[in-house]
Amino acid sequence: MYILNRTAAIVLRQYYLMRGNPSRVLSVVVWVTIDIVLWGFITKYLNTVTSSGFNFVPALLGAVLLWDFFSRVMYGMTMAFLEDVWSRNFLNLFASPLSLSEYLSGLVLTAIGTSAVGLIVMLVLATTIFGLSFFAIGLMIVPFLFVLFLFGIALGIVGCTIVLRLGPASEWFVWPIPALISPFAGVFYPLSTLPHWMQYLAYLLPPSYVFEGMRAIILGSAVSGPRLFCGAGLAVLYILFGCWFFQRTYLRAVRTGLIARYSAESIS
After folding, report:
1. Is the residue at 268 inside a domain?
2. How far apart are CA 137 and CA 155, in angstroms?
3. Residue 267, domain member (yes or no)
4. CA proximity to 174, closest of 64, 85, 79
5. Do 94 and 85 touch, CB atoms closer than 8 A?
6. Residue 237 lies in a domain
């Protein structure tokens, strides 16, 4: 019971922060709205200038929606962590009986809430304005979102660890992570488009299995279940690695005293 209460306290703090400052909620909604509107009009334009009869809406706009969902999960965790860093509240949290697992669980629940809001907004816009229908994908959308969610959590933990190790000024190493891995994930094109050395790296990324599966469904083919399970397994392994990495970094910060002098520019 105490474990649940302490985890819920982390989520409740983030709720109070958002309720007290609506701009935090707007930041979740505005960026996904811009992406959906921009790519929605791009896909409509491509449909008008091509004579192949191929519908770009599910292929491109669907990929944007899934990728933005993954990014919102990752940023949901890192933003919740950075709120504690910016307010100099990090040391206070771990001076309490709060454990690392409880703290990370609270960040995960916060990421679920923020990413769910973004996903609902994207679905409403993509469906009502641009006619994107996920009925074409069917129930496979559920495992697709699940794999992306797991990998988003893994990268969120890694991003928190980077900031914990290098200091708050290193947050700028975290924001570009989704953009850096997107060429390898095959978000907008098949993996066969990539050079062989990039394809090897792509198969180490869970999102590549999701987007390859989505394109297979759109083209009328079947999704490879074992490959999708492979993507989910990789995501779980990355979560375990992220938790181990976070714990090791936290213990080092405690042992060296870095956690006690955590300031806006500490990078030692």
Report:
1. no
2. 26
3. no
4. 79
5. no
6. yes
* C-alpha–C-alpha distance, residues 138 and 134, integer Å: 6
Q: Which domain holds residue 189?
A: 2-261
91, 98, 112, 205, 244 from 84: Cα distances, Å: 9, 14, 18, 30, 21
Rounded to whole angstroms, the Cα distance separating 252 from 246 reads 10
Residue 29 placed within a domain: yes
Domain count, the chain: 1
What's the N-to-C CA distance of the chain in angstroms?
A: 38
- Residue labelled with tokens 């394109």: 215
Tokens standing for residue 142: 């559920």
pLDDT tens series, the chain, 268 aa: 555 778 888 888 888 878 777 777 777 788 888 999 999 899 888 888 876 667 778 778 888 999 999 999 999 899 888 888 887 777 777 777 788 888 899 999 989 988 888 888 888 888 888 887 766 666 777 888 999 999 999 999 999 999 888 877 788 888 899 999 999 998 988 898 999 999 999 999 999 999 988 888 877 777 777 888 999 999 999 999 999 999 999 888 888 777 766 654 454 4
